Amino acid sequence: MPVINTIKEFVDAQGITPYQFRKDVGIAQRTAYDLYNNPLQLPSSSVLTKICDRYEIQPSLLLKWVPIVEREAMASGGD
Question: What is the CATH number of the domain that holds 22?
Answer without folding.
Answer: 1.10.260.40
